[in-house]
Structure formats: C-alpha cells, structure tokens
Amino acid sequence: MKVLDCNISYGASINGQPHRNCDTFADLCAAMKTFGIDGGLVRASYISTVGVSYGDKMLAADLASDAAKGLELYGVWGLVPPCTGETPAPEKLPEEMAKNNIAAIYFDPKSHRFVPNRISIGAYLAVAQERKIPVILHSRYGITMETLANIMEIYPDLTVLFGDTDSWPNARRLYPLAYAYKNLYFDLSYVMDDQGIEDMVGRFGADRLVFGTGFPDRYTGSTMAMLRAAEISDEDRAKIFAGNLERLIGQEVLK
Amino acid sequence: MINTNSKIAKQFWETGKLPCPILDFHAHMNEHASIYFPAGDVDGMMRSMNNFNVRWLMFFDHLEFNDPLYAKHFAVEAVNKYPNRLRAYRGILSRHLNPEEDIRAVDENPDIYVGFKILGDYNKFPIADPIHDPYYQYLNDTKKLLLIHTWDKSPFDGAEQVRKIAERFPDIVIICGHTFFGDIEHGIEITKEFPNVYYELTAIPIIRGFLEDIVEAAGGSDRILFGTDLPWFSTMHGAGMVLSADISDEDRLNIFYRNGDKILSRFPWYTLD
C-alpha cells in the first residue's frame, strides 16, 4: 500500500524541540524508509526558526539533492505578508513553486509575527484559491479555529489542509466547518480519537482525510496503525494513505 | 510498514491485526461533557476491543467520576454485560469519600472491580492525604490495583504524592497513569525505588521518544503497562507508538500483554485464553 505523509519536517533545533529531532534532510529520508513512508509533503523547520528566505531556499535545494531519490517528496514553503518582499510576489508564486518542486504553502503567524487575515495575506490566498494551491493551516503555527473559520468564510473555495495539535477529540469544533466547506481537508497527524476516522469517513467521505504523522514530533506508527486497522474499505484506506494527497498536489500548480 | 526493524510491526501491517493480545489498564466509558465520542458506550468500546485484539480492559466510568452521587451502578452493569472482557476501577472521589461503602462494594464484588482509581488533579485534592488511608490500607492488604492519574509536578498527583503512598503502603500495585507526563524522569526514580509501582502509557504517544526514554531509564520494559484512555483515544494510536518506537520486539510484547498478564494473574477470574 502506498503511503504519502502530508506532515513531515526536518531541521536542527536550538531549543530541544522536538524531543527527538531529525536534524538533516538525509536523516529524514532514511527515517521514512525505515517507517515505510513513500513520500509526501516536507517542510524545513528552518522556515519557522531561522526565517523564510533561508528555510525556503534550503528546502528547494534539498529536494533537488540525491538524498531525495527513491522518495516522492514535495516541498511546503512558508510565506509571510507579501508587502515586505521577503517571499515571492503572489502573481509569481505558482511559477516559483513549480520550478522548485513546491506543492503547498503554509502560514506561521506565531513564529513570523503577523496577523493572518485578508489584509495581510489575502493576495496569497486569492492566488491559492484560483490556482488550487493547497494551503496548510495548522494550530501548531498559531492558526486558531476562529482564524480558520474567518479565512474559509472569505475564501470558501480555498483548498485548505487543516491540522490541530489539540489531543482532545475535537469534533464539535471541526465538523461544522467540514460540513460547510468542501475543499477543507483534515491532516490526521494529531487525530487520536477512538473510531474517529470511521466517524469522519461516514460523515464526509474518505476524500477529505489526508494521512500525516507529524514526524519528528510524533511517532509515525500511531497514525499509520490507526488507519491500517480502521474499519473502512480498502479503497477508502488507500485514498487516505496516498490518493487524496496525490490529488491535492497534482492540481494546477505543478502542471 | 511502520517499522522495518520489527517482525511484529510487519505482521500487523500485512494483516491489519496485532499478532498478540492487548491488556488495557487505563480506560473510561460513557459520556463526558467536553467531548463527542463516536463510540463511548460499552458496546462501542467493545467493538474497538474486538477489532484491536484487546483481551481485557480496566475502566473507570466517566459518569461515576463526574456524578459522585447517583452513577456508580453504570460500571457494574457494563461489566455484567461483558464479564469475560471488562473489569472496573471504583473511584476514590476525595470530596465525596465513603470508605465503608466503597470498600465493601469492591470486596463483595471481586468479579466487577480490580481496585480503585484516584485523580488528584481533577478533585483538586492531594492523593497522599491521610483521609484516603482506609482505601489504601484495604488495597495494601488485598494486593488489588490502584490506578492513579499522574501528571507533571502536580501538588495533587505528582511524583512526590505517589512516593508518599508507596512508602506507606508497599504492597499496593500502583499504576501511574500517563507516567507523570511532563515529569517522567522524576517518576522513573520512584519506580526504581518501589517494585510495585508501574508506568502506564496513555498520553506518552504524543511525544516521540518518550517511550524509548522510559525503557532506557528504567533499564527495561518490565514495568510498563499498556493503556489508552478509551473511548478518548484509539487503541491503535497507542499500539502504533509501541510498534514504531526504537525498542525490541520483546519490549513490545512485554508492554502489550506480558507485564499485565503477571499482574492480573492474581485474580481468580483472570484468564488470557
């Protein structure tokens, strides 16, 4: 069964986090082979810890290196409000992403210190909506549920891959948004709920769920085992393990 | 395939089933005000247990915990519905103690209860306070189980509170739920000092590396018990951590059921068959 992970990262850390880190891109590639992960969306943690210019360039270079051979890896770039000129101009973003094998973008207002709204990042969100670029919004980067709801209200057709680090089962917060927005997808990295996958597949269909591990912060085996053993059809399981992410990253931007 | 270094992980990946039983020492049941559970009642939990090869599960009912007055019968009914799969912990509710009634209930119903559970953080009451002594003395005399919610450096149920209980009641089998999450190193010192203190793994999966730290610091996996907080968290979420952790397959089997098998063997009703 093919396995693509929507939430993996690497990069040395100065503060002891994650607890067991994955310092280099080569270490990440080796770990993926040990855990049986065939590829996915990778992020350089330097984007959030050092800066967007440094991290985005390093990620693009690493993706083009020999270490990536044999794995189906695509990058995730971090963006800050375009008015400062630190990240590609919105109109040039799709072209720059395609050149550098970048398949998704994310915003980290917690580390990069900006307000994530239409005024600050709306130009990027408009391009992403038009070109079907997956936008990763995650509570670990300071995206609250309220921010997510506000963004979806303004950009209802935006392709969003949302993740939430809250370990407590969160259906009462997430399900209303899932019912409202058909392009809202869920990263399963931090989902631990008993029979949660079965419940979501039953309500929204398997197309809305995307396998992720959160490596190196989290154990890769946790989500893998949950999904492998979930009481869903093998067709749905294959979609969640790889097919849905393939569909998302195979849209406009990489063509 | 989860872990190329593990035969057990490979077997699981090929079949979707663990090749060994699981003994779950930390679960709950029924409604909780903060949470929607897709399968929180006894039948929903049994469905998960069957799917994931959980042979026995020990639980403390949410209803009994959050309503100290009128809800103690729900746990009894659940065990009576599945007498060959479930056992309950009776609650020690520090602000609603009734030791005479509670101890009698546990003592007269050995096929329902394995012991008591106490949650100092939730009751905002130190678990080592002598007010609980009748319960602990009973457990010490009968060698039944005490499951404790242990968390970080809590003044209510942190490592120092557990140490005080273990010192005074050395024959209680103390199961440290969540393994002092946030203060694991201190917790490990206590298990080294007291042979009847065990770790339990609920919450540990959320930080990669914690399980390896525990195995390494404790000098092995002999005192680690499996638990999930079901119906909160999937059995396979915890099992997946064990499968992908950098430990041996012998450690994995110890954690899934061998250590628990030794503990439960003290009860006449227990069988792993």
Question: How would you portray this structure in words?
Answer:
The complex is a heterodimer of chains A (about 260) and B (about 270). Chain A has one domain (about 5-255): Metal-dependent hydrolases (TIM Barrel, Alpha-Beta Barrel), CATH 3.20.20.140. Chain A has eleven helices and eight strands. Chain A has helices at about 25-35, 45-50, 50-65, 95-100, 110, 120-130, 145-155, 170-180, 195-205, 220-230, 235-250, and strands at about 5-10, 40-45, 70-80, 100-105, 135-140, 160-165, 185, 210. An eight-stranded parallel beta sheet of chain A has the order 1-2-3-4-5-6-7-8, with helices on both faces. Chain A is globular, with a radius of gyration of 17 Å. The two termini of chain A are about 25 Å apart. Chain B has about 270 residues and is α/β, with parallel strands linked by helices. In chain B, about 40% of the residues lie in helices and about 15% in strands. Chain B has helices at about 5-15, 40-50, 60-65, 75-80, 100-110, 120-125, 135-140, 160-170, 185-195, 210-220, 235-245, 250-265, and strands at about 20-25, 55-60, 85-90, 115-120, 145-150, 175-180, 195-200, 225. Classes of the chains: A alpha/beta (about 260), B alpha/beta (about 270). At the A-B interface, α1, α9 and α10 of A face α1, α2, α10 and α11 of B.
Main attributes?
heterodimer; A: 255 residues; alpha/beta; TIM Barrel; 11 helices; 42% helix; B: 273 residues; 8-stranded parallel beta sheet; 12 helices; globular
Compact description:
Chain A is α/β, with parallel strands linked by helices and 255 residues long.
Largest interface: A-B, 36 and 48 residues
Please count the helical segments of chain A.
11
Mean pLDDT of chain A: 96
Range of strand content of chain B = 15-25%
CATH topology name of chain B, in short, is TIM Barrel
Q: What general form of chain B does the structure show?
A: globular
**Reading side by side through the largest sheet of chain A, how are the strands ordered?**
1-2-3-4-5-6-7-8
**How would a crystallographer describe the biggest sheet of chain B?**
8 strands, parallel
Oligomeric state of shown chains: heterodimer
Query: At the first level of CATH, what is the class of chain B?
Result: Alpha Beta
CATH homology superfamily of chain A: Metal-dependent hydrolases
Question: Uncertain spans of chain B, ≥5 residues at pLDDT below 50?
Answer: none
